[in-house]
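FORM 7B: Structural annotation worksheet

SECTION A. Query
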Amino acid sequence: MIASGNGQTDAGDDPAALARSLEPVIRTSCEGRLGEIEWFRASWQRGGAATGYSTWSDNETGDVPVIVKLPVGSTELNWTVRLGDHGLDRDVVNGQTPHPTPRVLGSGAELGGHDLGWLVIERLEGKTVAGDLTERSMTGLLNAAVEFQARADAQGIAMGEPPATPDWSGALEQSKVWVRDNPIDEAKRWKKAIAAAHKTLPVALSKWESRSINTWCHGDLHPGNAMHMEPHSDHPDRCVLIDLALVHAGHWVEDAVYLEHLFWGHEEKLFGIKPVRQMRKLRKERGLAVEEHDSELADIKRMLMAACAPSFFGVEGDSKYLSRALELTERISSKLLA
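SECTION B. Predicted structure
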């Protein structure tokens, strides 16, 4: 059964079966330019979406390998379409600024009389940054993130309110309980660090909630959500962001710290790149807003995430991750309480 509003299916639905049943409707909606679709389940996919390979053909583009995706939620659909009206990635040459998102060739918010979003986007030739982790690919990911921010801001859409601030007090309480009830290295230090982080909340959250809402954040900036294309012939090295389902109004440090925290305890995989510092530098070069207190905001976000790390142990990190999170919690909470 197809749900309304969000373009999602009920949990019991088979996305591939739904997609196959709607394939003739999709192809008709594309006015004969979309070829037969080979449906598959991608390892990186979350939720109830189906994805397929096909070919798009018209006088403007010739034959283009494409990916068909449905259902697509409204945020992902709207932002992918807004930012996808550009040339093909395969046509980007040296001297041009690479496109930060894929070219959209077909899309819609309805299909077969149902409120169901769908996309036809160019199929990129590279690997995910996660599968091709190098200094060059990580640099490309950050370049793409800032270009994404610039182009999203240029849409002129009112940002409105950011997502509600999480219940950090409750999250810290969960972290405290986890440390109390589970074996963990440096348990005594963790108890003190979490308590200190809790004491900082009035000041930390006041500063965080008064931050400038100065960009559209990707919301899920990680190496699995960017494709890396190696340079060849006269084509530059570049990255293209995928999965725009969590785009939201916010402050740019949110994306930078989120990316950084994935490598806590494993900073060697960043090849000396500091995501917050590098993103700030790139934003400044691009003419985007940066402020003197950006580093303080980044520290607040780091501390909040780090202090909650124990309750996510086994999901997001390992012992090295936890050790680094503990160091950050102690250092930043001490600074905020000084």
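SECTION C. Observations
The CA atoms of residues 1 and 10 lie 6 Å apart. The radius of gyration is 22 Å.

SECTION D. Sign-off
Analyst initials: ____
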